[in-house]
């Protein structure tokens, strides 16, 4: 196995995740989670999303840029902590745009409500059950039968 940096390990784990939950804090201090589609498959510390500028979480981020991202699959879970901001970058919007995005933005890439959200991760915590769902299920049963603690990979890392 090749040694990987913490950012590379997090990138490996989230590479197949398409849906993320963005957690923001509103003006009343309440936490709220919002599902978003991950727009880039390569993770370098930033995640990009095409979003509605008029969404409640866009308003939340104007009040408090601190946010969290959660991603989950059948065998791995990643929690990112960092800051999110709406940015103006028409070239990046065009780079990320796909015809599937028309479901949310029927006016296309020039929809006036179409915004670009950049999430910059400061830290991550991940849990992984190597081998996928079947191996994870086997390991859980084995732990139950032997009385030994379930062994998965869990790390907290600071990201550059």
Automatic annotation (TrEMBL):
Residue span, General stress protein FMN-binding split barrel domain: 7-150
Origin superkingdom: Bacteria
InterPro entries, sorted: Split_barrel_FMN-bd (IPR012349), Stress-Dev_Protein (IPR052917), YdaG_split_barrel_FMN-bd (IPR038725)
UniProt-listed Pfam families: Pyrid_ox_like
Protein name: General stress protein
